[in-house]
Every structure is written in structure tokens, then in C-alpha cells.
């Protein structure tokens, strides 16, 4: 038995495939000729590597499963240990943030931005990536058809209003640009739930494009000569 699946997947890949968001994933596996929970635990406990997985400080959740090969009678045990993403009221945070932005745009005689489900989903994926890796990925072109795009990631311990004010300090030109018509916002908290990372995506889609557009990396353009990515943190 091995930690790499027959399809080449890792434990983290399989957990993510099931829709479970986690910062850390550890896996213990073993095979035995008997259905014996205490014996399986003892076997793991007597192995330094497996014991360290179970006792790791970054683990807060666990799942255990056992199955039997009917042809051989051999039992296989799998223990998954993880640190899940901290649940935050992302709907309330994103709604409030977009509300502040719409108000600012109307004061500047700009139209409100239309929330895009495709961009919202992608912004959420990017927020999780930032929490897990500490930065935005290098390739940030979503499967979405657009002419221009601007992506900003900020980490704060503020509420929605404070986060919006912080965004405006560095991104007011883009946030108030009348050429952008759609928006996606994603939120994810760090493991201590102290810093909330917000990813804001502003976009102008191609004419006739919809939320299920099929853009590519070749569609991406920098905004007004500025880098399309920006990441910062303030507590």
C-alpha cells in the first residue's frame, strides 16, 4: 500500500477532490489481517512518523475508515488528519464589501459592479490559495472571457468597512474605474481566524461573454500599465 493513489493523487489531492478545504492534510495507512482498532492504533503509535502525524500541533480534525479485501481477508486502515479552513461568514463579508464599493462608485458617478458567479468562485479559490501558500499563484487567468482584469489580495483583521478603506488606499483607481463592469470577491481566514484574506477581482468581459465564458491566459491584460496582481497585509 502507498500514499500515492493509482491515479497519481496525493492525500491532499483526494481531500480537495471531495470538496473539503484544508490548510494541512496528513495521512496514516496500514494493513492488518484482523479487524482490531486498538491493534491498529498501537501499530501507528509505535511508529515515530505516524505518531508525529497524530500528535502534530497543526491538526484539528480527523477521519478514520477501514475496509476489507473479500478475496484475501486483509483489512486496510486509513486515517486522515487535517487542519480545515476556518469558516467565516463569507457571504456577509463579501456583500458588505461590495456594498461599500458600490456606494463609493455611485459617489464618483460610476455604475455599480455586477457580481459574477464565475469570478466569485475564482476569487474564493484564490483566497484559499493565499492562506495556504502566503501569496497569489503566478498564473491567475481564470476560465473566463474578459478584455481586462485586475486582482488584489489584502489581509486584514478589520471588518468589511476597514478592509474596504484599506483597499481604497492602494486600489482606488482600479476600484472606481468605469471600464470595469463585473466583480468577484473571495474571503478566507488564517488558521487562527485573526487575519481575513480578501481577494477582489475586477473585470470587463468580452462582448457577449457570460459567466461560463471560456477565456484563456492570452486574454489577460494588465490594467493601465499596472501589474494585475497585488497582495498586502495589515493587522
UniProtKB/TrEMBL annotation:
Q: Where do the SCP domain residues begin and end? A: 7-79
**UniProt-listed Pfam families:** CAP (PF00188)
Question: Which SUPFAM superfamilies does the record cross-reference, listed alphabetically?
Answer: PR-1-like
Q: PANTHER family annotated for this entry?
A: SCP DOMAIN-CONTAINING PROTEIN
Name the record gives this protein: SCP domain-containing protein
| Origin species | Pseudictyota dubia
